[in-house]
Structure formats: C-alpha cells, structure tokens
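Weekly modeling sync, notes
Attendees: S.R. (lead), two postdocs, one rotation student

Agenda item 3: backlog of single-chain predictions. S.R. asked that every request posted to the team notebook include the full sequence so nobody has to chase files. The rotation student volunteered to paste the first one in as an example of the format we agreed on. Action items at the bottom.

Example entry:
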Amino acid sequence: MEPGDGMSAQTIDLMLAGKRALVTGAGAGAGRAVAVWLARAGCAVVINDIDAASAADTAAMIDTAGGRAAVAVANVRVDAEVDAMIDACRGAFGGLDVAVNNVGMLAARHAASFLEMDGAYIRDIVEQNLIATALCCRAEAAAMVAQGTGGCIINVSSGESRRPAPDLAPYGAAKAGVNHLSRTLAYELGPHRIRVNTIAPGTMLTARVRAALSDDYIAALQASIPLRRMTEPDDLARLAVFLASDLARDVTGQFLLVDGGADLARNRPSRKPSET
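Predicted structure, as returned to the notebook:
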C-alpha cells in the first residue's frame, strides 16, 4: 500500500499500561533513562540503586510527571538484598512483569594492562557485571514463574563483549558472560513465556566517562562512528521500551547494539593508559 491510499495515521499501542517493572542501577545515567521511559509507556516502576538518595530522585521525577514509582535500595551483589528487592516489587505493585538489569561497571580503579590486574580487581569486575546480573535474573525469573503470566528480562551488556578489549579484559569477558547467560535463560525460560534479551550501548558520555577520557579521544571516537554521534541514555531506553512491549512479543535470546554503528567501525581509536 502506498501513502495516500486511504490508510489513516494511527497511534501504535506499546501495551505497557499496567505492567510492573524493575530497573537496577536506576539512580542515574542509563538506568534512570530506562526507568523514566518505562514509566512514560505506562509501567509502574521500582527504582533500584545502592544509593538511596539517587533512587529517590529518579522516583520523584517519575511521580512528578504523573507516573508511579517506588524505591528498592539494594546491593545486587548480595543474595539476600536481591531477594528483598523482589519482595519490594511485590509489596509496591503486586508483582513483576519487566526487569532491566542495568548494574555494571568498567572498573573501580584504573589498571593499565591485564598484567597489572590482581585477583581482587578481576573478581570485583566479574562480580559486579556477571554475578550480580545472574543473581538478579534468578530472583526475577522465579517471581515471574510463580506468577504464571510470563515476563520480560533485559540485561545490559557492552560492545566490548564482542571485540578485543585492551585494558578491559575482565569487563569484556564478564559482559560476554552476560550475553551467554541471556541466551541460555531465553531457552530455559521460554516455556514459561519469559523473554530474555541483551542490549548493549555505545560509549555514553556520562560524567564519569567524560572525566576519564580526553577531549581528543572523544573527538576521535565520535569521528569513527558511522552515525557520527555518541550514544545517549535515551537511545538505550527507547530500545528497552520496545523490547518490553508486545511489539517484541516474539523476540528472545537476542543481542542488540545501540551504538550508532560503532561496532562496524574499523578505525576505532585505541585508548591510551592516561585516558582510562
């Protein structure tokens, strides 16, 4: 059908009204953007963060805009706190339909090369990115299975999981583990009508990232991206809303990049130790 053949414009329903969502690490940055966008789409959202004040700020943003939000302060590296977070979802909104596991980190401190990383450093990175995501997935999936109404889990990964990641070896490996975990859970949880997907943002210039990178590196990185723009938190959030909706009802076990085409670039600049 060609434009003008009689089809009138219409609004496409994302079908998220009445859904109950959880976003981890939603006190700032991409997690906050995801939480706000899910609320705009009709979800009641539980805001998780380890920082109570940041979580409360995100919840206030949603409440002020007319949405519904609750706060669940928890360290998602601790089993008991993850379980308490899921209980908070039940207490606030009666259950859980959508979970976005956004918590992760590059590094708590800089190491210039893999040879300079000690065991504590490596364990910290893997635990924060892979183990925390696995703990959340287990608790979220158990809640969804108990409800018997299906659900959607979205795990946040990284483009560094798909390419060599100099200076970031444990991080890239942990995020690759998240990718594999997601595909396996998509297979295992499919019979329960629980979809599991992975999304991976390009470099986002959060305050922490901007402070770690030089202006020259940022300019070179942007020039190497096919769309010539850095990824923004809203870009990740828009994809999360789509995957959480019934528009993506047959999408599971997938890894989706939101990076402006950065993964395609052959001239991606290498980072200097002084810039990381």
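Discussion: group reviewed the output briefly. Residues 212 and 276 are 5 Å apart (CA to CA).
Action items: rotation student to repeat for the remaining queue; S.R. to check formatting next week.
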